Amino acid sequence: MTPSSLTRRAWLALAAAGLSPPLHAQPQAAPIKIALIEGLSGAFANAGDAVARNIQWAVERVNARGGVRLLGGARPLELVRLDSKGSTEEALSLLRAALDQRIAFVLQGNSSATATALIDALDKHNAREPDRRAIFLNYSAVDPSLTNERCSFWHFRFDAHADMRLAALTDVLRDDRSVKKVYLIGQDYSFGQHVNRKAREMIAAKRPDIEIVGDELHPMGRVKDFIPYATKIKTSGAQAVLTGNWGNDLTLLVRALREVGSDAKLYTFYGNALGAPAAVGDAGIGSVLAVAEWHPNVGGAPAEAFYAAFRKRFPDPREDYVHARMQVMVEMLAAAIERARSTEAAAVARALEGLSYDGATLGGLHRATMRAEDHQLQQPLVVSVMERAGTREVPHDVEGSGYGFRTLRRLDAAAVAQPSACRMNRPR
């Protein structure tokens, strides 16, 4: 059986279910390989595994409707997983290996420091070997410099960067008149340093009456006991903690805050999964906030169908962390390849510039545009708060924890857009 012999209804049904068609129904042409370079083992393996699941599912959804349409016929996508073990040096070695295989599409996101190194290496490679260039698709390295002073023609970011996320969080913080004291804590690398610095600026502009009672950075991925940090936070009298921490550095922080009895609200980038809700328990109800492009309780039939398809594909509650932006990234890559009528990196990069995603494969629930001037995706953001699951507003929990998130505020793309200082060098 070939893709053309399947009915359109059958293909759509398979795609909606998040399933690939039978192997004999796959396009027979050579696959288009995309290399995922991510920490799939080590301190942040839980975050890497979540990424791999989301991207694998996105690939399956594209393939389920026939693959990527090119003049010579449809071609499937193929995800090549490369474990960097959380090491930038290993990630650079894996980039070289992917380029040696002539893989033109490289994906990475967990760690802005690693992303910076990969962008620099890819810029040099593409200038040196134009016959085997590649582009870098970034789904979660959110240091704003990557689409500002460090911007590159070969790099595209599909996550909202730190300033966009902070703009949303501090808008909510501005309106929370119960908060008079805030503690800033983050991981000690470029991203964490930027979040603390920019959060201080935004809070001063929006709520000059708020006192910053702590501003602290800790080693990334090496702290096993956050009790000393949590004790300082409690002693400071902070009514809110703002953090960009992710992975185990977030889970261990919120667990320590619970253990010392802190009742401070948590304004987080990533507090809606990877063990954080279960770690904080009932103490997080009404007090743990997160910002993201989407969450399972945004409401509406399209969102429900999308989430149901993901859970059908990954029924284990421990695997319940779905990212709409990763679906958008793979969909936009497929669309750009079709638009360019080529898999050549420069042609696909030009096709991505200014490309809009209409949300069709997500039931219209997420619309976004890749800004051409800096390759930063412009998309809506949602600030949500943790609640006990099972209510009309919070029908779904997170990772089987019994806790889910309720929308506090939805901000459209224009509301969180930030100016860019990008001065991009474009290849001829």
TrEMBL record:
Domain of life: Bacteria
Keyword list, A-Z: Signal
Cleaved signal peptide residues: 1-25
Family annotation (InterPro entries): BCAA_transport (IPR051010), Leu-bd (IPR028081), Peripla_BP_I (IPR028082)
CDD domains the record matches: PBP1_SBP-like
Residues annotated as domain Leucine-binding protein: 31-387
Pfam family, one: Peripla_BP_6
Family stated for the protein in its record: Belongs to the leucine-binding protein family.
Protein name as it appears in the record: Leucine-binding protein domain-containing protein
